[in-house]
Specification:
The protein folds into two domains: about 280 residues, no CATH class; about 90 residues, no CATH class. The chain is built from 14 helices and 13 strands. It has a ten-stranded antiparallel β-sheet with strand order 2-3-4-5-1-6-11-10-9-8. A three-stranded antiparallel β-sheet has the order 7-12-13. α4 crosses α7, α4 packs across α11 and α11 packs across α13.
Length: about 375
Amino acid sequence: MKVIKNNVSIDYLKASFTLPELEDGIGLYKIDFYVYLLEILGFQVNEGVMSDKGLNGFRSRIELGEYILILLNGPQNKTGLPTNMLEMKGSACREFDKRNGDWAILLDFLLMFNCNFTRIDICNDIIEDEPGVHYLFDLNILWNKISTYEFHSRGFAKRTLFDSARTKDGTTLGKTITFGTRSSECVLQIYDKKAERTVVAKEEVWANSWIRFEIRYMQSKANQFVLRYAKQDFKDLQLLFSGLLSELLEFKEPSDYKLRHPTAIVQRRDVWETCPWWNEHLGNVKRIKIQNQHSLETTLITNMKWMRRSVSKALSRIAAADPDNFFNFIYDLINIKKDNIETKDIYMINDFRKIMGMKKYSDEEVLNEIDKISNSIKNMKEK
């Protein structure tokens, strides 16, 4: 019986944000964003452990559970406010999963509050638990294909192969294939995860083999990935990863021309047939390219998706618990911030209306529409 796991997961996240309320003297535990963030992460506000021991330019930090970090009072942004950061390394991501965390809700929430994503890693782990049980390919097959240039990649100026270096005790670190460089905003790495965990982390790994495909997005590419993820009507991370990997890399079967002219310098690898086992691994998905997207274009759409996923259940509970006052509650929600509508909010509204093919609103028309909706709700609650 085959015992093979083919999992996709988020394995690193860094997102920075500002908390203007802190500058106004409001305590951290009274700031809505912070309270909501902790709730999504699976913690109560009193569970965070504050430490004055800073990290990477941040003056203090909050530790949640064993691994999740919120770094506070870091470098100032362009507006002069100190930045803060949510950092979740691999262990923190697994802790979030164990707490039944929902990545779609977390990323949509951070996006809705205009957080800046500086890094996000998405990994595909292929784990074989039993000796003699093999997946569609192994790391040696991939290594040989790349060594002989029997592949086609997009957007990478460099690829590096690091062979099985041995440590002093004779153990091997395993093969590593890297596309991209330290300065790249997108890096694809394929490596022997079992060797990495055994040698570097000094852990005992029971798997027979463990291959990891890891896509790392940094800076603008990280933000573009989250925007792309938010635009999906579904949140199938495995399907999304397959589409991304298909865009970045294809393993190819050499054409007859290469077989007849093995020393030819120019080889049209892009027209070679893709290896059947690679198509089977990816599932014959459509390629997905991460590219620049206008952030305002997705903000309101993201707001609505986040509310459907995260707020709808809370509203249902409120409606069931106190049906007589439910419309009063909705009326207050709409009106409480109406006087704080800013120019950027008007831009956001009109950007959404443009996408939907509707006419542009003036500032006055926006406020009038809010009043109309408020009056309609008021009439409903009076009935």
